[in-house]
Amino acid sequence: MEQSREIKGADENAGSWLLITFGTLLSSFGYVIFILPLNLFEGGVTGLGIIIAKFLGNLFADGRMLPVVGVISWSLTLLIFAASVRIMGKSFGARSIYSTTLLYFSMDIFLWLLQSYGYDAKIRQLLDHELLVASIYGALAIGTGMAIVFNEGAATGGADALAQVVRKLKHIPVGKTLLVSDTVVLFIGFFTFADAMVGFKTMMYSFIFIFIQARTLDAVLNGFKANQLVMIITDKPEVIKKRIYAELSRGVTEYKSYGGFSRVEKTTLATVIGKNRVPALRRLIADADPDSFVVIQDTAMVYGEGFETLPR
């Protein structure tokens, strides 16, 4: 029994690392294909890395962005992780260092490959007049990748780590914090490279990208943590309650109810449970009392014991 639990735990841990890898590479793909070739601004530490890489490219190259965005961003991020790990824990630190290292160095490798074979120019030519398309698809890819990584207890960069710290301490959604920090970096980038880049037009499309990225991040994260309110009107409340406690480890609220037409007294049980566990609950109810009346509703937010703390 103990050995089977260890095997299951190892499998879940390996699956978590695979999801972190997938989410990180998805974000890296979004940056390299849609953001960097078109000189769109990015926020956070990655945005600062892009600004510095572009500045170095103007000094030492032909104006093209040097493939050092990852190295610069990774170095800045390590400083932020040193502080955030104390609050988020060592597991968060280890996973975040892996995700950040993979993100930044894969970005440099992808960018180097694109430049080596001339695909960066082709992408730029293809999407140069489709900045809105690039902004939307880049935001969807990066935001989804980040959400996958966040859901596995990691961060893809320094600003992301800070956003998770703020969420834990102040209960502010990650997307809101990132939207503010990214917008600040956006303005820094605009005023730094207003002459070298497309200027105001680029900044507007970059803000669209940052806004959709933040909204996508929160939407996907909420999807991972989506809960549903389940109301069960039954004649066998004790059996169902005990099985919910034992098999699903969820609490139940119980109250008496009466049929509006029949006036027959019954018991209504209410519980809030994750979407992914609703099928198990349905099977449990069907086995315990197939004649029960069940209502399942989506919930926008759930606060309290076992869920998030009420924001102040």
What does this entry look like structurally?
Helix content is 67%, strand content 10%. The chain contains 11 helices and 4 strands. The chain has a 4-stranded antiparallel sheet, with no helix packed on it. A hairpin with a 6-residue loop joins strand 2 and strand 3. The radius of gyration is 24 Å and the shape is elongated.
Q: Based on DSSP secondary structure assignment, what is the total number of beta strands?
A: 4
The SSE order reads HHHHHHHHHEHEEHE
Low-pLDDT sequence parts: none
Mean pLDDT: 80
The backbone outline, from C-alpha atoms, is elongated
Q: What separation lies between the terminal Cα atoms? A: 44 Å
Biggest sheet statistics: 4 strands, antiparallel
By helix and strand content, what is the structural category?
alpha+beta
* Strand proportion: 5-15%
Give the C-alpha Rg: 24 Å
Query: Approximately how much helix is present in the residues?
Result: 55-70%
What are the main properties of this structure?
alpha+beta, Alpha-Beta Plaits, 4 strands, four-stranded antiparallel sheet, 2 domains
Concise summary:
The protein has helices at residues 2-35, 44-60, 69-88, 90-116, 119-127, 131-151, 158-170, 174-192, 200-224, 237-248, 278-288, and strands spanning 227-234, 253-258, 265-274, 293-298.
